[in-house]
């Protein structure tokens, strides 16, 4: 694998790729908050890995051991511009396909809403249009409002990531199928994301999450022109299936798949079903309706 960085107005973005040119629209993979590009590399469908040109990008602020962007200045437009800059550097002017999980999906949605012609297809997995999340992550977002809260998050994040079993337990709590993390997909994914999660700067992570909480793309969903595949978990404690249904109703060309018993990590909890959905929707051999 090849890893390098591309410059954007929000700072550098890390890129992981195999560096091999293949025909068809390039596929851009965007991970979720506190996770890593290596998670997508680990669980990418084999057909996508070997037949398509692909790039796994890091979210803003997700640089191990380094400071991130001035996330308090973030807007959907600035997020869209940063992603467009990275894609331009990697692929030129050609339209791309984007697969985003959670906050990575929101990043891709910013681009689809602000620059509708840039994406050929978009996959939103456990993702959202309104940045105020549910459950424990909503409480995390509110911690940024005062100094004590920021200190608590800093201590809590360092404690959670200090030992792998603690971080794994957090992922289990966000899942609909806890046994997943004992299976191959869960073990491979965890081993791919944990080494970087423990090296991220918690202040930067909290700032990013808190800033996104004030963003809402609901009214802009109607401007998204590309076909969109939405994959939601029936038991997702972060982004409810009801929110996914509301988004699908507003998107002009959306198809929604709700996976029974699945939580916030469909690609880990239901890897075979997700791989089949991705391979069909992103196929270059035929045009699929949504």
Give your account of this protein's structure.
The chain has 290 residues and is of the alpha/beta class. The protein has a single domain, classed as Alpha/Beta hydrolase fold, catalytic domain (Rossmann fold), CATH 3.40.50. It is 43% helix and 15% strand. The chain has an eight-stranded mixed sheet with strand order 1-2-4-3-5-6-7-8, sandwiched between helices. It is globular and about 50 Å long.
Through-space gap between termini: 33 Å
Q: Helicity level, as a percent range? A: 40-55%
Strand order of the largest sheet: 1-2-4-3-5-6-7-8
Shape: globular
CATH architecture: 3-Layer(aba) Sandwich
Keywords:
single chain, 290 residues, alpha/beta, Rossmann fold, eight-stranded mixed sheet, 8 strands, 15% strand, globular, disordered C terminus
Structure in a nutshell:
The protein is an alpha/beta fold and 290 residues long. The protein contains twelve helices and eight strands. It has a single domain (2-281), classed as Alpha/Beta hydrolase fold, catalytic domain (Rossmann fold).
SSE inventory with pairings:
Layout: E1 2-6, E2 13-17, E3 27-30, H1 37-43, H2 46-51, E4 54-57, H3 76-91, E5 96-101, H4 103-114, E6 119-125, H5 135-142, H6 147-162, H7 164-173, H8 184-197, H9 202-212, E7 228-233, H10 241-250, E8 254-259, H11 266-269, H12 271-281
Helix pairs in contact: 1-8, 3-4, 6-7
């Amino acid at each position: 694998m090849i890893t390098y960085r591309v410059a954007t107005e929000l700072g550098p973005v890390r890129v992981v790729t195999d560096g091999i040119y293949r025909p068809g629209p390039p596929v851009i993979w965007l991970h979720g908050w506190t996770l890593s590009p290596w998670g997508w590399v680990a669980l990418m469908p084999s057909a996508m890995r070997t037949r398509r040109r692909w790039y796994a990008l890091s979210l803003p602020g997700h640089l191990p051991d380094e400071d991130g962007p001035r996330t308090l200045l973030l807007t959907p437009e600035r997020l869209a511009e940063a992603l467009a800059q990275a894609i331009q550097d990697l692929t030129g002017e050609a339209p791309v396909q984007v697969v985003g999980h959670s906050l990575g999906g929101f990043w891709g949605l910013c681009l689809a809403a602000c620059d509708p012609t840039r994406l050929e297809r978009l996959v939103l997995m456990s993702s959202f249009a309104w940045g105020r999340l549910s459950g424990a992550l909503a409480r995390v977002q509110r911690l940024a409002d005062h100094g004590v809260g920021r200190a608590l998050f800093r201590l809590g994040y360092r404690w959670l990531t200090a030992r792998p079993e603690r971080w794994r337990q957090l992922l289990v709590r966000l899942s609909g199928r806890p046994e997943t993390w004992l299976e191959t997909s869960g073990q491979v994914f965890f081993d791919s994301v944990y080494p970087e999660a423990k090296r991220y700067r918690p202040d930067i992570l909290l700032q990013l999450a808190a800033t996104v909480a004030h963003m809402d793309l609901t009214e802009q969903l109607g401007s998204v022109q590309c076909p969109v595949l939405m994959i939601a978990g029936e038991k997702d404690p972060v982004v409810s299936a009801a929110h996914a249904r509301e988004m699908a109703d507003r998107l002009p060309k959306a198809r929604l798949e709700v996976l029974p018993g699945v939580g916030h990590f469909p690609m880990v909890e239901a890897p075979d079903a997700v791989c089949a959905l991705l391979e069909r929707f992103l196929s270059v051999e035929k045009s699929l309706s949504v």
